[in-house]
Each structure stands twice: as structure tokens, then as C-alpha cells.
Amino acid sequence: MQRIINKLCLTFNIIDELIELLKADQLIAIRSAASYGRETQVFELTQRGRERAEKALGISLYAGAAPIPLKDYTRILTHQYVGQIEVDMDWIRKSLSHMVVDEKLLNQLGPAFSSGKAIFLYGPPGTGKSSFAEALGRALPDHIFIPHAIEVGGQVIRVYDPAIHFSVEEDTDEDIQLDITANLKYDPRWKNAAVRLSW
Predict the structure, then answer these.
(1) The pTM is what?
(2) What span, in angstroms and rounded, lies between the C-alpha atoms of 139 and 134?
(3) In the chain, how long is the greatest CA-to-CA distance?
(4) Nearest residue to 142 (alpha-carbon basis) of 84, 196, 198, 96
(5) Domain limits of the chain?
(6) Backbone angles phi, psi at 151, to 5 degrees
(7) Using CA atoms, how far apart are residues 176 and 170, in angstroms rounded to an integer?
(8) pLDDT, tens digit, for every residue of 130-165?
């Protein structure tokens, strides 16, 4: 049971309800149980369940955390958007305090950066373009919430990519004691993650 919870990133109550629906539909059966509690039960697919699983795999090979609906993903993105960060001259000065920067350039960087849009830095090599970009990028909040996957029009799109993102939370141990009353800090279908920067 705990492995299912960890894999789908859903709570015990939701998984318990889904198991009841699968049993009622005769898609799964209990193979063994160490006690009367649901947490020790081991399930297996029935013939009907295997047929349904094969059909589902023909549509999508995704197997992981339950996907987030597109509208929820969009709503959360707007809250984490860089335009929501209050950028003023003090923030710009502090971000670039380790550099010698002309006052005119500081006055141009402030409005450009606070716009939340792309900034095009140009000039000859060695004038500090990469240093500016790196300093301002590192001054932003270092992590955001990224969903494992989103659902768009019946299709699942994987968003969290370990090659690009890395988790900043402590990974949960799959062997820990099942706690059905656990208070979650946030929806576990989202990863508290940061982007791997390469300059």
C-alpha cells in the first residue's frame, strides 16, 4: 500500500477509495494480507484488470505520480511567476554588489528585470553580460513547485525532469511506517525543486 501511495503521490484516503472502486469493478483481488488492515494487503490484477491495463498502456506508457490538471498547473505558475517578485533598486544593487556597475546601467536593469520578460544583453566579449545574467538569476528564489506531470486533453505530459531539475526536499523513505493521518505540507504530486543552472 505504501509503495502505491509513494508511486502515485496520493494520500491514503484517496488510494483506499480507488482500491474499493477497482475491487467493485473486479479489476483487482487481494492476494495476501498480514492483518485485517488495508495497509498490509497485497493486490493482484484479475484477468479483466490485466486486459484494462494493457488497453491503458496502449494509450500511454506513463506510470508515476497522478498528473495535475492543466488549469491547476497554470494557476500555480502565475503565483510563482518572476513578475510576482518585488524588484526594486535595492534588490538590483544587492544582487550586483560584488560587481562594479555604472549607475546608468543599474537604472536600465531595474525596469527590464522587474518586467518579468526576457532581457537581451548585448555588447562586446568580456563586458560582463554573463556575469550580470548569472548574478540576477541567482538572486531569484532558488526553488519552485514543479508537478511530476500534467494532464492535457487526456494526454499525460511529464514536467519534472531530473536532468534539468533537482529536488530540494528530503526524499521520503518507502519503508517508513504508514501514517494515514500524516499532515502534508503540500500536494506531493508537486516537487519542491530548483533548476540546474549552467552558465
Answers:
(1) 0.59
(2) 9
(3) 73
(4) 196
(5) 1-59, 86-139
(6) -115, 125
(7) 13
(8) 888 888 777 776 677 889 999 998 889 999 888 877
- What does the alpha-carbon distance between residue 126 and residue 131 come to, in Å, rounded to a whole number? 10
Residues 128, 134: Cα–Cα separation, whole Å:
10
* Contact call for residues 131 and 109 (beta carbons, < 8 A): no
* Nine cell digits for residue 176: 517508513
Residue type for 99, please?
M
C-alpha span between 78 and 105 (Å, rounded): 29
> Across the chain, where does the E strand assignment appear?
28-33, 41-45, 68-69, 144-147, 149-152, 155-158, 165-167, 190-195
- Is residue 109 exposed (0-12), middle (13-18) or buried (19+ Cβ within 10 Å)? buried
Q: Would you tell me how many other CB atoms lie within 10 Å of the CB of residue 8?
A: 18
**41 - beta bridge partners?**
33
Angle (CA) 25-30-33 rounded to 5° is: 150
SS3 167: strand
